[in-house]
Amino acid sequence: MLVPLYEAVYRRLDVGPATSVLGLGCGSGLALLLAAARGAPVAGLETDRELSTLARGRELRVLPGPEGTGEVGRYGLVTAFDGLACAADPEVVVKEAADATLPGGHVVLAAWGPPERCDSAAVLGVARRLGPGRSPDPFALSAPGALEGLAQQAGLRLVGGGRINCPFAYPDLDSAVRGLLSTGFFDAAAERAGEDAVSGELAAALSAFRGESGAVRMTNVFRYVLAESVR
Q: Are 74 and 41 in contact (CB under 8 A)?
């Protein structure tokens, strides 16, 4: 779903064989695969064992977590594309990104755009409604200046940013529910209220975005900040 974001950043920075890329929270490695397809040498950090196993299955170099930053060296581009707002301490993540960036290299931080510009906000709200106090706020870094402030606190120099349309599309309602549950974002709500209750609430929220064919499509905006290492 975030491929338009990945591609926009890589085009803007002209990522290629001369750009080494480190993905923080790289998940199953899709963003790294796209960078590798452009010729870039890539590596990733991922704390989730299942996701890191999937990424390694794609022949990507992935270490188990942020504590491995020093082991992978320093890179020309370090990305935090997904999950920054839900991290236990976003400031620590951004500092790790800055520490892993070569002088003159770039750090990219991304987050959901304003909730009023994201159809998925109503759907994501199910997690917080059924898991109050336990589910993170995906829009915690959506306010103007939030990502920029994190970059500056880490000693990075702001050099740009942008907003990218990232539609979430599924062939049918069942696929949409399964896809959203698989993200892990609704785990706390499922533990508290039960997976059946969460699935039912998700189906109800998603029904507003079903077309005549039964397909589900939500229009969303993501924003990113581009910063440069001056160390």
A: no
Model confidence pLDDT, tens digit, residues 160-175: 999 999 999 999 999 9
**pTM of the full structure:** 0.91
pLDDT in tens, 75-118: 999 999 988 988 889 999 999 999 999 999 999 999 999 999 99
Return the pLDDT at 71: 64
